[in-house]
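User: Is it possible to get a 3D structure for a protein together with its bound compound? The compound here is fe (ii) ion. I've pasted both below.
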Amino acid sequence: MTIRALQIDFSQGFDRRWFGGDAFRSAYFNAMSMTFPLGEQSFIDSVKGVDRFIDERIESEAERAQLRAQLTDFSAQEATHRHIHAQYNAVLAKQGFENAVEKRIEKRLERYKTEHPMNLLAATCAYEHYTAILSDVMLKNPAASESMTPMMRRLWLWHALEETEHKAVAFDLYKRLGGHERGRIVAYLLAMVFMQIDAFLQTTNNLRRDGALWKPSTLWGALTFYFGRPSKGNGWIWMTTRPLLAYFKRDFHPHQLGETEPPRAYASEHAQDWRVVRQGSVSAH
Ligand SMILES: [Fe+2]
Ligand SMILES: [Fe+2]
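Assistant: Yes, that's possible. Here is the predicted structure of the complex:
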């Protein structure tokens, strides 16, 4: 894992429909961005929350140190993401969009505060699986992000790269600390429901504010996004259903999905997009 500070300047803002002029795609990805500052903070908190179990359940001092080094890198990457997405979201606020999902997430996090730390970690594993799948699609299929403006493409692919790099960190921690299967699956089902509701409500909210909610072109944009042809960067249903279901397998591991090559190639080809803050001491692969 490498900690990278993305070189990006939001002072000039960005187009309202930065994703290929398409209202639906822009609204959907904006909705995702709106969940990140709080969501990614909760991931960081969830790995901190199980810290005492590392001492209690892992005997080898060397293994504990190695694990903690990975967690430090994981948290550093997520902290950079939330920082950049907060700037992104500030532009959205200026454009007149309302971040309603953040309030919902805040309430939910409050409600689950007393949940067992291992279950909160299981929730992080679930969300990390989602982000890994979306990242994998974007890194493997350049057509999926081709119509983004260059600045936004740089941002989403940088995020995708790092999500792919650390996709197994929370999962490995959960397993290593003895997290059980049932907890992993229940958390995933819950996350799936929350994700769909959050994405749907915030995307429609964004579309309403964009004056595009009831336009046929928006519906068409949504239909092609989900059901179009992957070779044209469409059809996200076809590209994500299998890996989404793979999580239910007993022997599932994040490294069974996706490849390590595209991120490495992307990282070396786009090194000018960021400043390397720190070369992480431990690789997730
Ligand atoms: Fe992230
Ligand atoms: Fe992540």
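Residues 15-279 form one domain. The chain has one domain: 15-279.
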